[in-house]
Each structure stands twice: as C-alpha cells, then as structure tokens.
Amino acid sequence: MNTRSARPAIRAVRFDDVGAAIERLVGIANGDTGQSARVADFLLAWWNGPDNGHFPILHLCNCDATIGEDMIVIMAYLAQEPTVYPDAWGYRDAMIGLVERWRAREESTGGHHG
Fold it and tell me: Is-contact 72 96, C-beta < 8 A?
C-alpha cells in the first residue's frame, strides 16, 4: 500500500499555504502575549532548534485553534518536502528579529518562556 496516497490532507498543503501561515504566525509572534511566546517557540524551533530551543507539542493545546492550524499547515508541508526554512518564503529578516526579540529577552532574564 502506498502510504503517501493515504494522506491527502498532508499532500494538499501548498507552498503558498505555508507562506500565508508564516505571515500570520510572525505577526502573532511579534506581539506580547502568552500565545506570542508559544508561536515564537514554534517558529524559532523550526528556524534553529539547537540554538533557539524547542517547541513543546502541548503548546498546540494552549493556542487558539486558528493558530494551531497554521502550525499544523507548516508541519504538514515539512512532512512532505525536503528540509526547508522560513527564508524560502522571504522571512529570514523576520526570523532574525524574533531571535533578537525573544531569545535576547531570555538571556537578560535568565530563563526560557513557555
């Protein structure tokens, strides 16, 4: 049995869908709420997990459904494509900004948010 054909929802995620999800998530991550911190964790774990920390899967439960769906869109795309990062959609500078915003804050307060 071809398992790829059994996963139409994952295969239906397109490059443009991911770009739209990233745009929404970057906007949220630039806020200053608990959800902003969780979205930043997600994006930064994707960008460079070893340096920027991890994304606890339970964060999906602690975000609005639409935010979680955007994260899942990205994960579904990553499951079907070779390694790709947010800069493929033109978000390199935005990701660097999130590192400076969220990870510099942690260094100055001595801890990880989440």
Answer: no
How confident is the prediction along the chain (114 residues), in pLDDT tens digits per residue?
Answer: 455 555 666 778 999 999 999 999 999 999 999 999 999 999 999 999 999 989 999 999 999 999 999 999 999 999 988 889 999 999 999 999 999 999 986 554 444 444
* Cα 31 from chain centre: 15
Q: Which residue has the tokens 């991550």?
A: 29
CA diameter of the chain: 53
Distance from C-alpha of 67 to C-alpha of 8, rounded to nearest angstrom: 21
H or E element, residue 9: helix 8-11
